[in-house]
Amino acid sequence: EEEAALVRLCQRVCTGKEPEAASFYREQGNREFCRRGYQMALRLYSKAASHEPPSSPEVSVCFANRSAALFHLEHFEVCLEDIARAESHGYPDRLLPKVLLRKAECLLCLGRLQDAADALSVVESKIHMDGLMTSPTHQTLLKKLSHLKVKLHEKERCPEPAQEARGDMQGKSEIWEENDSISGASSSLSLNFDTERGRHLVASQDIMPGQSLLKEEAFVSVLCPGESLPLQDSETAWDTRVTNADLYCHRCLRQLLASVPCRGCSYAKYCSQDCADMAWEQYHRTECSLGALLLTLGVFCHVALRTVLLAGFAEVNRLVEWSHSGDKDPHNPKAGCKCLSETPEPGAGTRGIPGCDDSGQYHSSYQAVFHLLPHTEQHSPEHKFLCMLSVVAICKQLQEAGLHAAVLNQESSEQWPKTKTSEQTSDELSPELKTVAEAMLRHVLQLQCNAQAITVMQELGPGDGAVVNKKPVRLATAFFPVLSLLNHSCCPNTSVSFSGTAATVRASQPIPRGQEIFHCYGPHQCRMGAAERQQLLRQYFFECRCRACLDELESDVKSVVSMRNSFCCPSCQAPMQGEEDLLCCSNEACATSVSRENLSRRLQDLQQQIKKALDLLRDRKADQAIKMLLKCQMDAGNFLSPEHLLMGEMEDHLAQVYATLGKWQEAARHLKKSIGIVEMHHGPSSVETGHELFKLAQILFNGFAVSEALSTIHRAEEILSVHCGPQSAQIQELQEMKTCLSELPRSILQRT
Ligand SMILES: [Zn+2]
Ligand SMILES: [Zn+2]
Ligand SMILES: [Zn+2]
Ligand SMILES: [Zn+2]
Ligand SMILES: [Zn+2]
C-alpha cells in the first residue's frame, strides 16, 4: 500500500528526458530570442538541451541556439564553449557557416585576432565549397564575412592597450595557519570534550574579529531544488519557471550560465563536462535513474544516499560492523569511544574523542561523519519509522534497477555473481544493501541535528537595475564534520559564509583565549524571542543555555525582538500591552483595546499588499509600485510600532523602486531609514547592516555623491570583511567602486 502511494507521488515529478518537452522549450526559447529576451532564451535553451538525447544533432542545435543568446549577452568565452559543443555533437553541416562566423566574431571581441583570422578563413572556404552563392542566406553570410574581415583589419592596425593588472586587489592576505590535529581548522583553536557540552572548539589564543577559524569543503552536499523563480506565466504542460536546479551546478554549486546536461536525466545539470563526469563517476550513475524518488523523499534521504556512495562500500561496511561490535561486547575497551556520553580518560589528549583516529587527528572524513550524533533514542518512533520506510524504498529501487554493483563500487557488474541476484526474491534486500540501508538510516537521523544549509546571496527581481537587491537563499544541504563540532548559541561569536561547496567561519568579535567558539544553527536572538528559539531548538535535542537565552529567560524582561516588532494603538499610536488575546493601549487616558486577532489580520493584509507592490515593480510599473508602497506605509503607521522590521522593509523596497527610476537621492533617503531599523534589530556591525550599507554605497555611487559614497564604502567594507572575508565578491565590488570614484575627473568631484 505504502509502495503504491509512493509510486503515485513519484509520478508527479519527472526527471526523464522527453522529446516533446525539448521541442517545447526550444520554441519558447526562440520566441524569447526574437523578443530580445536573451537571458530567458538562454535558460529555455538549457532546459531544451536537458531533454534532448546526449551527443545528438538535436542537442547540438540547442547548444548552437544558446551560443547566439550568449553572444548577445556578451559572454564571449562561454559562447565559444557552446559553439565547440555544437560542433562536436554533429551540428548539421549546412547550418555550420553561421555558427562559425559567430565564433570568429567572438574571437574578435576577445581580441584574439590570429584565431579570429583563422576562423574566418575556415568559414570562407566552407562557404565557397558549398558552391552556389545565389541563395539569400548565402548572400547574407558573405556580407557578414566581408564585414568581419574589415573589422579584423581595423583591430589589427590599432590594437587596444593591454589592460593593466590590478595589484591592490591581493593587498590584504589573511592570517591562516592550519591546526595540526583538526583538518580545516585554524591553529588558534583546540578540540575539547566534556559530558555537558560534548565535543566543542575553544580558542587556544586570543582571536581578532574577521580572523578565519575554519575553512572546510563539504564532505557531501546536495542541491535543494528550491522554490521556482517566476520566469513567465504559461499554462502549458512543461514548466518554464526557473529553479535553483537550473541556476547552479549540481556538483560544485557554481552559478550556471550554459549548463551541461546529464546524459541520463533531464534534472541534473553541471557547469562543465568535467563536473558532469566527476559527478557521474562518484555518485550520479547510481542516483540518475532514482531522480523522481529522491526528489519525492526529500533532500535528507538524498544526502544520506550520496554520503554512502562517496564513502565507498568498504568504508561503510567497516564502520557499520564496528558499531555492532560495541553492542555485542560492552567490555570491549574500544567501545567506550563511540559512546558519546562517556568522557575519555584524562590525559588521553584528543585520542579518545569520538571521530578522531588513533593518533588523535580529526579529519573531514566518513569516519567523522559516522560519529556525528544520531540521537537515535530521542527521535519519535513515528519519525524513525518514516525514515526507515524511505531508506528501504531507495534500497529496493537500487536493487530492482540492478545498481547493486554500482553501490558496491565495483567496476563492472560481472564481478557481482549473477546467480546470487537472480535467486533473490525482490522483497528481500541483499546483505550488502542491508548494511547500506543501516548506514543511510543513521545519516538521515544525524541530519536532523547536523545538516548544514549552504546559502548564497541570490539576486531578486529582473536583475537589470543598477542596484543589486540580493537575499540569502538556501542552496544545498550538506555535512560539514568539522563545522559540526561547533555548538549553538543564539548570540554566536562567529559568522559563516560559503563559496561553492566550501564554508568559511570567521570570528565576528574578539574572542579571548579559553572561550568557546559558537555558531548559530538558525534561531538567532535578532530574529525571535527566547521562547520561540527554544521551541525551534527542540529538534536538536537540547535546551539552549547561551548568554542571550539565560538573560531573557531568567530576567522577566520581554525580549527585545517582541518589543520592537509590536503593535501600537490605532487611535493614539502608543505601544499596545497585554499577553492575552486582548491588547490594551498603554496610554491610560486612551483606553483603546483591540483583539490580537484583529491586528494580526491587518498585518497579514499589509504583507499581501507589499507583495503586490513588488509584483508591480517586477512588471516595470514603478510609479504604481511607489503609490502602493506609500499607501502601505500610511496604513502600517496606524498599528505597527515605528521600529517594526516591516517598516524597514517598506523603506528598503521604496529605495529599490526609486533606484530603478534613477532617482538616487530619493532612494538614498529611504534606504537610510531602512538601515536605521536594521541596525536596531541586528546591531551596527551585523552582516545584515553590512548588506544594507552595500546597497547604499551602490546608490550613492550611481548618484555621484562621491564623498558620502566613499565613507559608506569604507563602513560596508569594514563590516563585510569581518563576516565574509576580504576575498568575497561584495568586497571586490566595493573596491572597484572605490577605484572608479578615485579616477573621476576633478570637475565632478568638486560638484559634490
Ligand atoms: Zn560544477
Ligand atoms: Zn542524471
Ligand atoms: Zn540561546
Ligand atoms: Zn491609545
Ligand atoms: Zn542578527
Automatic annotation (TrEMBL):
Gene3D superfamilies reported in the protein's UniProt record: 6.10.140.2220, SET domain, Tetratricopeptide repeat domain
Domain MYND-type: from-to ranges: 249-288
UniProt feature, compositional bias: Polar residues: 411-424
Domain SET, residue spans: 187-522
Keywords: Coiled coil, Cytoplasm, Metal-binding, Methyltransferase, Nucleus, S-adenosyl-L-methionine, Transferase, Zinc, Zinc-finger
One of the Pfam families matching this protein, by short name: SET
Disordered, as annotated region: 411-430
Name listed for the protein in its UniProt record: Protein-lysine N-methyltransferase SMYD4
UniProt source species: Manacus vitellinus
Classification of source organism: Eukaryota, Metazoa, Chordata, Craniata, Vertebrata
